[in-house]
Design a protein that fits this description.
The complex is a heterodimer.
Chain A (H helix, E strand, L loop, with lengths): L13 E2 L2 E2 L5 H7 E4 L12 H11 L4 H14 L15 H13 L5 E5 L7 H17 L3 E5 L3 H4 L6 E4 L5 E5 L1 H14 L12 H4 L14 E10 L8 E9 L3 E5 L6 H8 L7 E6 L9 H7 E4 L12 H6 L10 H7 L4 H4 L9 H15 L3 E5 L7 H14 L5 E5 L3 H7 L2 E5 L6 E3 L1
Parallel strand pairs in A: 3-4, 4-5, 10-14, 10-15, 12-13, 13-14
Antiparallel strand pairs in A: 1-2, 6-7, 8-9, 8-11, 15-16
Helix pairs in contact in A: 2-3, 2-4, 4-5, 14-15
Chain B lengths: L8 H4 L2 H4 L2 H16 L5 H16 L5 H24 L11 E5 L2 E4 H25 L4 H10 L5 H30 L8 H24 L17 H20 L2
Helix pairs in contact in B: 3-6, 3-10, 4-6, 4-10, 5-6, 7-8, 8-9
The chains are: A alpha/beta, B mainly alpha.
């Protein structure tokens, strides 16, 4: 669907005998089903069966055939019996499988999946991988999968196409042959490789520099019996305890919706708990004036676009700083690969995903807060973006800043040397492992 | 957080829930139009009460859910009525009987009556709106608008998407204010928050539009998964509703 995206298309794209962009979209839509990254923003209808039927209705399927096909498509993705559920109340993994069911219902020859696991927790990713493997075994549909998650996709791919930063193909071939011949080149281009081949950051990097023992650091964060609920019938957090010393690194783990972000926001003073107490450097963070809070805590949002407060990159970096502190901004910008001479006057919203992620880290580097809270910071990042983030957190930030990160990414936990803190649905609180 | 109250499944399966949403919409619009023509407090009281009773009896809405939905609107209604009575010019007419006074402030009988009548009308409109919302499935409303009221598809599905985006907009607003607080900026109203909200809303709308196009939306004539047809209960509701409206208006003359 070249018409939907601003840009220039060179050459010709022929899909099942139809020329994309020239032949009517309906003819192309009949051939290709597409699933996008964010499960929420691609679902149209309120209920599961209507969602699957939406594409069939658009393509003019007769009512009788639709009524037979909808439950069939749902069952294929393990969503049998979900027909009357509300799409907004499904888990992320279920929503993503629903999106695939909707794309597959018209039985397209080709299914395109654009980073379908980016928003999923490990369970959701495993379920999706199992369904994809089953679809591959059935051989009824050609699957084109765009993915950073190498361990998931390399084993189920028949053919791998590696693209460089300039959009030109680097290599195309069966996964085994590609790894044998091009592994080094692919890694250099920032492409994730499956584990034994990837020069893993953890393996390549020197062992963790000696850090002050947590016991030696002074107590920075004290969370005692904290609970939180928007609605008393469905509490998000119950009697949670968490302690962080200066320089500590803790990773919050657990399925989507278990309250990782909520706990991060409570510790950062953005949200007041409905039970229990929080102490950040001795005071209640929710009661701190914004200026003092900003000195103590930095917060990196999952979606950088939700955290931009200014019209230009320069203003974004200087926001909330005393005039005397602004001197360091230019250096920080250069460190992050966003030199002000080039990026200073651009709008944060026009940056690429990787540039936005780096810009979102800038306040922490300028202020060097006692605590940095990060919510899914590796989401959608390629190998280079990931390496830059690790470098930032391990080397640039220094040992003075404690890190609390909410993530599904176990590689990040290992590379940071973070203490895992698992939030579970069954336990009343969390288990420190 | 904005709590958007969705109708419960038992209400959607009730007799009133199964009525065509367009028939209910037409009836509510007719009653509201009728209420605009009267200044007597009795017709709105009758119609509002009948609407709520129908929601509970025919629509199987739990009285508790009804109360939760009504509470903020009841407060607004009383406030509107009170200030309308207080600021009525009739209070300045020395010839009129005083109902209550506090220092120089007088409340005359006609002013109180006008305030009560206005509160009744506003309250009745709110009650009818809630009775409609708590017994109507949004998807069916869209289907019925397209199939029975011949509303253009683009508009109807766009409205559905906009309706579903409201809770997300509230989440974005919270996040943007949090981002300002953590940077040491004031979290009271600032134009940048509006810019952020617009950017996020447009990005999201864009993604949804691309997803809809990818599934062939608007590429040709649509078929219907759920067929909305006029039925006898629809006609019965419209007929009975019209009789009730006329009776209430006659009673209130």
């Amino acid at each position: 669907m070249p018409g939907a995206i601003p840009g220039r298309l060179d050459g010709e794209l022929v899909v099942g005998g139809r020329v994309a962009g020239r032949d009517p979209q309906a003819l192309v839509a009949r051939q290709v089903g597409i699933v996008f990254q964010d499960p929420e923003s691609q679902l149209v209808m309120e209920r599961v069966d209507d969602e699957v039927a939406f594409g069939l209705e658009s393509l003019g399927w007769p009512a009788g055939e639709m009524r037979a096909r909808v439950p069939e498509a749902l069952a294929e993705l393990g969503l049998g019996g979900f027909g009357r559920r509300r799409t907004a109340r499904l888990s992320g993994g279920e929503q993503q499988r629903l999106a695939i069911a909707g794309a597959l219902a018209p039985a397209p020859g080709i299914l395109v999946l654009d980073e379908p696991t980016a928003n999923l927790d490990p369970d959701g990713t495993r379920e999706l991988a199992a369904r994809l493997a089953a679809m591959r075994a059935a051989r009824s549909t050609t699957i084109v999968l765009v993915e950073h998650h190498a361990d998931l996709v390399w084993p189920i791919a028949d053919l791998v196409l590696a693209l460089g930063a300039d959009g030109r193909p680097i290599a195309l071939g069966p996964p085994g042959a590609l790894l044998e011949r091009h592994a080094a080149g692919l890694a250099a281009a920032g492409i994730w490789l499956p584990d034994p081949f990837g020069p893993g950051t953890a393996a390549a990097a020197p062992p963790d520099a000696p850090r002050p023992e947590p016991a030696a650091g002074r107590l920075l964060v004290e969370v005692r019996g904290v609970g939180f609920a928007w609605d008393h019938a469905r509490p998000i957090l119950r009697t949670m305890d968490l302690h962080l010393s200066a320089g500590d690194r803790v990773a919050m783990l657990g399925p989507n919706g278990i309250g990782k972000s909520t706990l991060g926001r409570i510790v950062s003073g953005l949200l007041r708990p409905t039970a229990g107490s929080v102490r950040l450097a001795g005071s209640d963070p929710a009661r701190l004036p914004a200026r003092e809070l900003a000195r103590l805590v930095g917060y990196v949002f999952q979606d950088p676009e939700r955290q931009f407060v200014a019209a230009t990159v320069r203003a974004e970096m200087e926001a909330g700083l005393e005039v005397s502190d602004r001197a360091g901004v230019a250096e920080v910008a250069a460190t992050l690969g966003l030199p002000l001479e080039v990026f200073g006057d651009r709008s944060p919203y026009t940056l690429s995903g990787g540039e936005q992620r780096r810009l979102s880290l800038a306040p922490a580097l300028v202020r060097r807060p006692s605590l940095l809270v990060l919510d899914e910071p590796t989401y959608g990042q390629d190998r280079h973006g990931y390496d830059r983030l690790i470098d930032f957190l391990r080397a640039r930030l220094g040992n003075g800043t404690a890190i609390l990160v909410a993530t599904h990414d176990l590689r990040l936990v290992a590379d940071l040397g973070a203490r895992p803190f698992v939030l579970g649905a069954t336990s009343s609180g969390a288990v420190a492992v | 957080m904005i709590a958007v109250r969705a109708p419960e499944d038992r209400s959607l399966a009730s007799p009133l829930g199964r009525i065509s949403p367009v028939a209910k919409l037409v009836l509510v619009a007719t009653w509201v139009a009728g209420l605009a023509l009267t200044t007597d407090p009795r017709p709105p009281l009758m119609l509002g009460a009948i609407g709520l009773a129908a929601a509970v009896v025919l629509g199987r809405v739990r009285p508790a859910s009804l109360a939760v939905a009504l509470a903020p609107l009841a407060f607004a209604t009383l406030t509107v009525g009170f200030f309308n009575a207080l600021l009525n010019p009739a209070n300045g007419n020395p010839a009129l009987a005083v109902v209550a006074s506090l220092g120089p402030i007088r409340l005359t009988a006609p002013a109180v009556l006008a305030g009560v009548a206005l509160a009744c009308r506003v309250g009745a409109v709110a009650a009818l709106g809630i009775a409609f919302a708590l017994t109507t499935d949004t998807t069916r409303l869209v289907d019925a608008l397209v199939q029975q009221a011949r509303v253009p598809e683009r508009f109807a599905y766009g409205a559905l998407a906009a309706f579903q985006a409201v809770p997300r907009l509230a989440e974005d607003f919270v996040a943007l204010r949090e981002a300002r607080r953590i940077r040491g900026l004031r979290t009271t109203w600032h134009p940048r928050i509006l810019v952020g909200l617009l950017v996020l809303a447009i990005r999201r709308a864009d993604r949804l539009a691309v997803a809809m196009d990818a599934r062939g939306f608007g590429s040709g004539p649509r078929t219907r998964y759920r067929v909305e047809r006029w039925s006898l209960p629809d006609a019965a509701l419209l007929g009975a509703g019209s009789v009730v409206l006329v009776a209430a208006m006659v009673f209130g003359r």
